[in-house]
């Protein structure tokens, strides 16, 4: 069960997975198959996940004596190169790989990395921590929300239905109706490129898209422009300006608009949510090796999800999986 402070704001009793029960394994055989027959398993990846991966490794070593881990958690940028090089048993990340990393991995391996989702990364807005990826508008903007399909037509060119260039096309009336939408974002690398590939069908950004050097610059631009909209990843917007707000989003037309508040994230909602993940080097159709499957089962167990829940109100803001997503990930393990 989530600690009380992690349940505050969720609005419903949290799903509690079953406790972990280790499966019997032929450990020498599994270690030989893994490529690390000495039982020392290296892990390279996100630095913010040390408070999750470290405790999970300790529990796993208790379940399977004779194992040990070497952790080199220096940042998500190290995860995919290490997985490609065969230098990491799996790659822990608190976001999905950038498009550039996925493309490099695909060139090297001929397929995409395989992801097991353990939880969600971040919730907000919070005054003391970064908000997950979001769209920001000026505080005075009355727009209730937008769908991802609408945003694709605002931010990119070539989307079905044509470009949306005025606030009236998004439903605003009065003085807002004829005003042009001023579009801000990051340079077309890393987060900005990942956003359009993941959510905007890989379409190129529109000519009116103004690429700025930093997340802070995007927030400042929207704060100074009532007719602006900005797309950024993790940022502590409240520390930059109180003249912006997070725009509620819907993944599909007809769905309710959502922000990344704790209750929404804990229920598996919000179309731009990020994931706490373990990335594996598995070819399509390849079964998860038994030892890796057991680590995944531990991470999805009651004990593993409690470790994630204990970080909900820390800087990274990790949130355990809702029951629907938990069952989907357990099925993926096989």
Q: What is the spatial order of strands in the main beta sheet?
A: 8-7-9-5-10
Helix fraction, binned, reads 25-40%
- Rg to the nearest angstrom? 21 Å
Number of helices: 12
Query: Beta-sheet strand percentage?
Result: 15-25%
Under the CATH scheme, which architecture of the largest domain would be assigned? Answer: 3-Layer(aba) Sandwich
N/C terminus separation: 25 Å
**Largest beta-sheet details:** 5 strands, mixed
What characteristic shape results from the CA principal axes? elongated
State the domain count.
2
**The CATH H-level homologous superfamily of the largest domain:** Periplasmic binding protein-like II
The unreliable regions are 1-12
Could you name the CATH topology of the largest domain?
Answer: D-Maltodextrin-Binding Protein, domain 2
* Average predicted local confidence, pLDDT: 94
Q: How many β strands by DSSP?
A: 13
N-to-C SSE series? Answer: HHEHEHEHEEEHEHEHEEEHEHHEH
Would you tell me the structural class of the helices and strands?
A: alpha/beta
The CATH first-level class of the largest domain comes to Alpha Beta
Top keywords for this entry?
31% helix; 13 strands; elongated; D-Maltodextrin-Binding Protein, domain 2; 2 domains; disordered N terminus; alpha/beta; 334 residues; single chain; 12 helices; 18% strand; five-stranded mixed β-sheet; four-stranded antiparallel β-sheet
TL;DR?
The chain is α/β, with parallel strands linked by helices and 334 residues long.
